[in-house]
Amino acid sequence: RLHATDITSSSFRLMWPELLSQETGYYTLEYAPTADLAGKRTKQVSGAHTSLVLSDLAPETTYEVALIPESNVHYFPPQTTRVTTLAEEISPVQVLISESGPRSFHVSWAPVLDSVVSYQILYGPLPGNSVKVLEVDGGHNSTVVEHLAPNTTYLVTVTALYRSGKEKSLSAKACTQEGE
């Protein structure tokens, strides 16, 4: 049976039993969003394959998938399945401020997602409009913000920059300790 694994917001892996071999034919794979079957895409795969990753898909979308074995030996009926991609990652969902001192604090966030290229940490005193930016690689989930004023409230915004070009932000307030 044709089925999907490794489902994300923009891709999934299709797996199917070995029906053909390299010599006996190939597979035609057709897939389209259920809501837009006219937007059908087609891929051809050698008969030696039993899996394929489909990518560049829309998030939170149900796809109709048909695997058509094109055999020169036997007739195989097409196999079909429906796969729904996951919602676009909403991130960060948590921003934590810790290890607060007079001139620095530690910012961490969760979750860390493969689809994030980098994080931008914007911070500035409240009230006020002087904002500084730190860039953090997408594989990291924390950073230290330094050179701050003592006994001051800061607004900290963590923005996730996705490979898709989308951005999602979450803010938290942080207070530095009184200086010596």
Question: Could you walk me through the main structural features you see in this protein, from its secondary elements to its overall organization?
Answer:
- There is one protein chain.
- It is built from no helices and 14 strands.
- By secondary structure, the chain is an all-beta fold.
- The chain folds into two domains: 3-84, Immunoglobulin-like, CATH 2.60.40; 94-176, Immunoglobulins (Immunoglobulin-like, Sandwich).
- The chain has a four-stranded antiparallel beta sheet, with no helix packed on it. Strands 11-10-13-14 form a four-stranded antiparallel beta sheet, with no helix packed on it.
Give the SSE map:
Elements: E1 3-5, E2 12-15, E3 25-33, E4 41-46, E5 51-54, E6 62-71, E7 79-84, E8 94-98, E9 105-110, E10 116-125, E11 132-137, E12 142-145, E13 153-162, E14 167-175
Antiparallel strand pairs: 1-2, 2-5, 3-4, 3-6, 6-7, 8-9, 9-12, 10-11, 10-13, 13-14
List descriptors.
single chain; 180 residues; mainly beta; Immunoglobulin-like; 2 domains; four-stranded antiparallel β-sheet; 14 strands; 51% strand; rod-shaped
What is the radius of gyration computed over CA atoms, rounded to a whole number of angstroms?
A: 24 Å
Could you describe the largest sheet, including whether it forms a barrel?
A: 4 strands, antiparallel
Order of helices and strands: EEEEEEEEEEEEEE
Structural class: mainly beta
> Quick one: how many beta strands?
14
Helical run tally = 0
In short:
Pfam families: fn3. This protein is an all-beta fold and 180 residues long.
